[in-house]
Amino acid sequence: MTTFTPISALIGGGMIGLSAVLLMLTNGRIAGISGILGSLFEPNQTDRTWKIAFVSGLFLAAFIYGAVSGTTVEVALPHRLELMIVGGLLVGFGSRLGGGCTSGHGVCGVSRFSKRSIVATAVFMAAAIVTVFAIDVAGGGL
Description:
Blueprint: H1 6-27, H2 33-39, H3 48-69, H4 81-97, H5 102-111, H6 115-138
Helix pairs in contact: 2-3, 5-6
């Protein structure tokens, strides 16, 4: 169990919202991570530079935070690696099937009052609740 830290959660949420707004203002694009990442693998991309910078920032942010705050970033696998790989593939498949991911629908779509995004986010959240229950409670913490 992790400790709830409301101040850092508010700051992090604000930064996510700010990055989504800045991307919309500067590029006119929605900050849907699965769409941005998926389009990097498509041929003949003309706007690859900002997408690489955006995705790189997702990975580098934790290390930058660690350097600025003087803390170490610890990475621990909460479950077996093969289950996490299968889960990642299912999330990728689901985000393509749903026409976006939690960042595109949950952050950008809900804030624009998109009915499609509100329904998609509700389905994401319900699936997450069921999955956590299945793994941690019914599955004995697989």
